[in-house]
Structure prediction request, 86 residues.
Amino acid sequence: MTNRAKLAAIVAEFLGVAALTTVLLAISKSGVGFSFFIASGVGLSVGFLALILGSASEAHYNPAVTLGLWTTRKIGTLQGVVYIAA
Prediction:
């Protein structure tokens, strides 16, 4: 992986988490903040983000996913720490 690809993966992870958080907060603070709408909105946004940003990164937009992949040794320690920090 080149330095440019690594930087693109880190930026994609940051943008994915930012977009996911924005969608979550926007739906929960709106008038239709029922748990079904929150879950479906977050699920749809994760799907769209994986389609849009998935080629640049591995689409781990949740630190728990990164932690799970790290514990099963599918990603390295440095990559996991960087993804969680981003």
Observations:
- The CA atoms of residues 51 and 82 lie 22 Å apart.
